[in-house]
Specification:
Layout (H helix, E strand, L loop, with lengths): L1 H24 L9 H13 L8 H31 L1 H7 L6 H10 L15
Helix pairs in contact: 1-3, 3-5, 4-5
Length: 125
């Protein structure tokens, strides 16, 4: 459940970032890809008064929303890390190169009985 909710929140975060980026484009402001670049552009747009005053309140709502979403993802990640530390299967999965904690917890939560697979190559279970 935590992974599905995290995924939903991450999707909303992307939607909010896209909304901010598209509103800035309306005023001729374009950010390089990445949320960090978007934040820099928003900061400079407010500082340089590149946006008309009427645009500030609406943009501030989106910024507050994305900030809340980032905090919520952080809280879920914290809970998942705690669960990971207590779960042997998750810790073993995270030891595999390329498998991060969030992915390891998702796999460990989803695949509770490894015996359901006939081999390591089976992927249609």
């Amino acid at each position: 459940m935590a992974h599905r909710i995290r995924s939903l929140i991450a999707h909303q975060q992307t939607m909010a970032a896209n909304a901010i980026g598209s509103r800035l484009v309306d005023f001729g402001l374009v950010a390089n890809p990445g949320k960090a670049n978007l934040v820099k552009l928003v900061d400079s747009a407010f500082a340089d008064e590149a946006l008309p005053a009427f645009a500030h309140p609406a943009l501030e709502i989106l910024i507050r929303w994305i900030t809340e979403l980032i905090e919520e993802i952080g809280e879920l990640d914290k809970e998942l890390r705690i669960w990971h530390a207590e779960n042997e299967a998750s810790r073993r999965l995270a030891a595999i190169q390329g498998v991060e904690v969030i992915k390891a917890t998702a796999i460990a939560a989803k695949v509770t009985d490894i015996d359901q697979f006939q081999s390591g190559r089976q992927h249609d279970a």
